[in-house]
């Protein structure tokens, strides 16, 4: 259909690029709801509509993209269901709600049992807050494969811009009118109010840059790009790795170094079988081992300081305990602040309220209960399957390389979510959703291409054993199997 083809080729990339820039410029604040967030949510609506139109007309045939769409809709369905009315018997299931009703009765207030959630307004805000990420995820799945590399490059450029802006902000004197955040010192965060999220962003861009460096080296061997491109990407990855300690995120280096090793292994940049036989592979392995030793020692020291001086461990344990009293329903998406304030231990009675649990999984458990944890299990199971299939791919380069680097980037965000809340920031939540969509789409295409290559080789072998000529269909397809922007290659990296 001409209209659908125009949407996929022209309108979707334009709207997606605009949303990506907008969420990075205005979505770095970690408050639950701001006026800028509302504008970003409205900006996501046309992108969501266009993506849905393309997916309805050309629904993906592979199981990976279908499962991804189903899980994304389930995540959005959790706060939507929590806004619905439930019977009083269900509403009273969590033990904490009996105590809440008793307290309200003593104050002369009738308990509201109309909704599943304890804070309908906050849950509605949480539902709206998921729109940019949902729109970005569906748009990436609906978009053609030819735009994927450009989108990855755009994410790297935005992170680099944010690093440059962070240097500019750090150089300004206190009280300067040019400071983005006047109420507090954002440190090296740049556009991101939380410096820990700057570490997450740098790790994402570093992993993607390594993937592009490996891919560029393969393309140089095929004569498809300039010889210096792999070195540019490798230099970018090194610079981004050096930016992680500047964010002062204690978990940053502990995540960055394993992520670097994982992306080199999954993309084929470092093959274990070549260590000891190739000087380049051996030197790279020794360098990674040295970095790992330094990173582990630094991480242990940072974690010791974190245990002694930070409250996040106490907050996480308190959130898990509160979640048990709100099970099986959960208190409602977005309701963390009021629920935690009423149930937190005296050691957490602070001058400022606790805005998040500093652990995405503990907060998701508290707010969504058993249903939310079931959806989380589905998402993690799909990610585990993707990791397994990427590791088993025999071909490297093109879609396989892109799927591997995006997969490691998503895993890095999920790992940092154990000690912080990057997915509560619109910029990182939307970027992670894009990376998940890129991973699923690229993996599905890589598997299709690998299956096609095996079939062609089988037909070629059968034909050689017979009359020595390729079947006509296979002969027509074989020359195209190893070329193009997203082509795969089996040459060692």
Can you walk me through this structure?
The protein has helices at residues 2-26, 35-57, 63-82, 88-91, 95-106, 120-129, 131-142, 148-170, 195-221, 229-246, 252-267, 279-309, 312-326, 336-343, 360-392, 398-416, 426-465, 472-477. With 493 residues, it is mostly helical. Helix 1 crosses helix 17, helix 2 packs parallel to helix 7 (131-142) and helix 9 (195-221) packs antiparallel against helix 10 (229-246). The two termini are 40 Å apart.
Measured on Cα atoms, how large is the radius of gyration?
24 Å
Number of DSSP strand runs:
0
Order of helices and strands: HHHHHHHHHHHHHHHHHH
* Proportion of residues in helical segments: 55-70%
What would the principal axes of the Cα set say about the shape? globular
Structural class: mainly alpha
Number of helices: 18
Keywords:
single chain, 493 residues, mainly alpha, 18 helices, 69% helix, disordered C terminus, O-antigen_ligase-rel_domated, transmembrane helix, transmembrane, WaaL-like
Brief overview, please?
The protein has one domain (2-82, 121-268, 310-455). Helix content is 69%, strand content 0%. The protein is built from 18 helices and no strands.
What is the topological layout?
Blueprint: H1 2-26, H2 35-57, H3 63-82, H4 88-91, H5 95-106, H6 120-129, H7 131-142, H8 148-170, H9 195-221, H10 229-246, H11 252-267, H12 279-309, H13 312-326, H14 336-343, H15 360-392, H16 398-416, H17 426-465, H18 472-477
